[in-house]
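Re: the request from the purification team.
They wanted to know what the chain is likely to look like in 3D before they choose a buffer screen. I agreed to run a prediction and write the result into the notebook, where they can find it.
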Amino acid sequence: MWAVIGNPALRAIGVSKVSLGLASGIIGSLIVLFGIETLGFGPGMLGMIFAIGGIFSVLDALSAGSLTHRFGLGKTLTAGFQIWGATAFLIPLAHGPFLLAGAGLAAVQLFDFGVTIYEVNEMSLRRRITPYRMLGRVNSSMEVNLLGAQLASAVLGGILAQLAGIRWALAVGSCLMVAGGVWLLLSIVWRIGVVPESDVS
């Protein structure tokens, strides 16, 4: 944990991972319930919509390398995080006729590539700036923070949905995601280009 806290770039990534965990815990725990009970979709239709995100995530993971080469490691991962966070607001905003609401959820899946690009580049940056002897501890700290945040926010999402409604709870999840992107934008991570392997000792 101290290896993460003591490095400005790793610290910023760690905060973004917690933000990702909080947001995904709330959204992930409520989106199916929202789609079925609020929007009126059947499980089959929701499955088809979610499948769109899976397909595009695979395709965009393959393009992450070229984007990173063009724009730099820090800018690419930060932009990916912000894209996912901003488009997540389309989930609580989905409403109206069946086709319109479905189009809103489908649009979110189309932009799901943002979090994929973030994850690919975040892992690459973490590996390149962390001394090899510390890599295992840094990776485990990041994953514990992510999973811990997901578990806590899944409970928080249920409480928020009970108190304020599912839409508002999903909006809070989206705000948490955007906050993580803003944190990265204001941190040293945004200014990092491509870090050579030889820089790690």
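For the purification team: Residues 10-194 form a domain with the Growth Hormone; Chain: A; fold (CATH 1.20.1250.20).
Please add any questions underneath this entry.
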